[in-house]
Structure formats: structure tokens, C-alpha cells
Amino acid sequence: MDAMQMVIPVLGIAAAAAVTFYAVSFSEIRERSFAELEESEDRGGGFRSTASSRQTRARRKAEKEARKREP
């Protein structure tokens, strides 16, 4: 038997195993994130809105500018 006849099926099996691993991993991550979202909604939380992100960026920018003016 030629070496290539042995290598190609082995590479195919390894590729299938890698695809399966990543599919299962991403599925578990998605399920975990949905569970965390449900828990945070039960506590009255949830994801931050874009307005909160903008406020955070504005605060950081103001702090950075204030540090530049101090010296």
C-alpha cells in the first residue's frame, strides 16, 4: 500500500474529530451564555444597553483628559 493511501483517511478522521469537538464546544458555550442571561434577568439585571457603554466610554475619556491636564 502506498503511504498516501494511508495518510488521506487518517487526515479525514482527524478533521472530522476536530469539527465535532468545535461544534460541541460552541454549543456548550451558547447554552451556558443563555443560562447566564436567564439568571441575570431573574435578578433584575440583563445586558447593558448601548447608552451605558457610551457613558462608560465618556467617563473614561474624561478621566484620561483630566490626567493629561494634571502635570
Automatic annotation (TrEMBL):
The chain crosses the membrane at residues 6-24. Residues 62-71 have a biased composition (Basic and acidic residues). Residues 36-71 are annotated as: Disordered. Keywords: Membrane, Transmembrane, Transmembrane helix. PANTHER family: OS04G0657900 PROTEIN, OSJNBA0011F23.3 PROTEIN. This is Uncharacterized protein. The lineage of its organism: Eukaryota, Viridiplantae, Streptophyta, Embryophyta, Tracheophyta.
